[in-house]
Amino acid sequence: MAFQPIKTKKIYEEIMEQIKSLLTRGDLHPGDRLPAERDLAESLGVSRASVREALTALSTMGILDIRPGEGTFVKQTSGAETFAPLSLLLALERNPEADLMEVRRILETECAALAASRASREELKKIESSLEVMKKSSSIQEAVEADVRFHFSIAEATHNSVLLRIMNTIGDLMHHNSRQTRENIYADPIQGPLVLVEHEAILKAIKGRNPAAARQSMLEHIKNIEARLNSASLP
């Protein structure tokens, strides 16, 4: 058994820990609004990019709610603690990416189908807004963050709180395990545009209130993601 040297946490992870600690101590409560991104960056002595990455990750986990034009709020309910054992279990797996992709195929296809049936007008706008940011983003990082929000918004539109919490946990693990690979995919002149086309097909099916088409479009997207990740991992 060989242990590896302890690595220093990344800045955004330290920010996440601070926010979680504030929640644990009761200094932050459900419904509370966090300081503006710029103010947080100044208070913590870090870049706005690091703050943005931390907030996006906590949003993906279901702890925070990022509302464009309004601010960032603590969610009324959070499944982060409930599913912490799942996060730990997956972290101990030798090849969690393959298992996570299989779970995504099962869950996200049904999320898309349910969203096609249940999404409100506001939720459809939120999904579409994420796609627009992906298309017009000025940086690869921004595109990846919008991608995460796109899938999270679809999960929200299912109106199933348990499913949403499970998706938060799995989405967070996927986001951090394969972030660099996803950034490379968006930077690719061929693969990047294809990813956008796939998301457009998913949105079209959901807006068209076609559960079967939404399910199929999401399935094709997940399969393509898996193929891209496998290709990127080859020597």
Write a brief caption for the model.
This protein has 235 residues and is mainly alpha-helical. It folds into 2 domains: 64 residues, Winged helix-like DNA-binding domain superfamily/Winged helix DNA-binding domain (Arc Repressor Mutant, subunit A, Orthogonal Bundle); 150 residues, Four Helix Bundle (Hemerythrin (Met), subunit A), CATH 1.20.120. α6 runs antiparallel to α7.
Describe the protein.
71% of the residues lie in helices and 3% in strands. A hairpin with a 3-residue loop joins strand 1 (64-67) and strand 2. A two-stranded antiparallel sheet has the order 1-2. The chain is globular. It has helices spanning 11-25, 37-44, 48-60, 84-92, 96-118, 121-136, 140-156, 161-177, 179-187, 191-207, 211-233, and strands at residues 64-67, 71-74. The two termini are 26 Å apart. It contains eleven helices and two strands; from the N terminus they run αααββαααααααα.
Indicate the CATH topology of the largest domain.
Answer: Four Helix Bundle (Hemerythrin (Met), subunit A)
CATH superfamily of the largest domain: GntR ligand-binding domain-like
Largest sheet: 2 strands, antiparallel
- How far apart are the termini? 26 Å
Please name the defining characteristics of this protein.
235 residues, mainly alpha, Arc Repressor Mutant, subunit A, Four Helix Bundle (Hemerythrin (Met), subunit A), two-stranded antiparallel sheet, globular
